């Protein structure tokens, strides 16, 4: 995981944790496994969202710096 998680990434992680907690309470193992897989997907989405958000912020910062030099 990145050291800084974006707001969107944190929301994905919160959803993943909720899914994992729900999976732990399931008596149906097939449903529990599906929830666990979905939680893993949301964890990947959290990482990807944070990387994209960081790159977007960096690009905006660079664009603003270039524009201010003119």
Task: Describe the protein's architecture and organization.
There is one protein chain. This protein is mainly α. It has one domain. The protein has helices at 7-25, 29-69. Helix 1 (7-25) packs antiparallel against helix 2 (29-69). The protein is rod-shaped, with a radius of gyration of 17 Å. The N and C termini lie far apart (37 Å). The model has no long low-confidence stretch (mean pLDDT 90).
Number of strands: 0
The amount of beta strand, in percent, is under 5%
Uncertain spans: none
Rg, Cα atoms, Å = 17 Å
Mind summarizing the main beta sheet?
Answer: none
User: Averaged pLDDT, please?
Assistant: 90
Quaternary state of this entry equals single chain
Helix and strand pattern: HH
Q: What is the general shape?
A: rod-shaped
Q: In which range does the helix fraction lie?
A: over 70%
Q: How far do the termini sit from each other?
A: 37 Å
SS element count, helices: 2
When the domains are counted, the total is: 1
Structural class: mainly alpha
Descriptive keywords:
70 residues, mainly alpha, 2 helices, 86% helix, 0% strand
In short:
With 70 residues, the protein is mostly helical. The protein has one domain (7-60). The protein contains two helices and no strands.
Would you spell out the secondary-structure blueprint of this structure?
Elements: H1 7-25, H2 29-69
Helix pairs in contact: 1-2
């Amino acid at each position: 995981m990145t050291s800084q998680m974006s707001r969107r990434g944190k929301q994905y992680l919160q959803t993943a944790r909720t899914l994992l907690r729900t999976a732990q309470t399931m008596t149906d193992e097939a449903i529990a496994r599906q929830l666990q897989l979905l939680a893993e997907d949301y964890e990947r989405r959290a990482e990807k969202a944070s990387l994209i958000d960081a790159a977007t912020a960096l690009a905006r910062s660079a664009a603003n710096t270039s524009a201010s030099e003119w």
